[in-house]
Amino acid sequence: RASLEVDVQVPDFWTIEETIAEYCKQEKHDAFTPYQVFHEGMDLHFEQTVYNYQLRQNTTLHYEKEQYMINVRDDEGLAEYDAKERQPFNLRVGDEFTVRDVRSAFNVESETHDGNDRLL
After folding, report:
1. What is the DSSP string of the chain?
2. pLDDT tens-digit profile of 43-83?
């Protein structure tokens, strides 16, 4: 699970969905679906407002989404192969993944690893 806190200023008439959209805008990434938003263990409904939940300054919301697919291409031996022949490998990751986690998952899922692999 990713652990990142971001300050987002929102008016109390905004819905939870609008609040998450503002968070995604500030973090410069698309809103993923499906996702869930929690506050103190309670699942918040998207259409309800910040005011309905009595969320105040310094309130922390937890935004959770499912893992998603990325494409990883092994470019080892670029001169030997035409770019068209190298197909990307689909890998399921989450926001909590580090580069090392992605590399490790790629090596396991693609069954390739020689100890000197570099993720480009």
Report:
1. -----------TTSBHHHHHHHHHHHHT-PPPSSEEEEETTEEPPTTSBTTTTT--TT---EEEE--EEEEE---TTGGGS-GGG-PPEEEEE-TT--HHHHHHHHHHHHT---S-----
2. 999 999 999 999 988 888 887 877 888 888 766 655 555 55
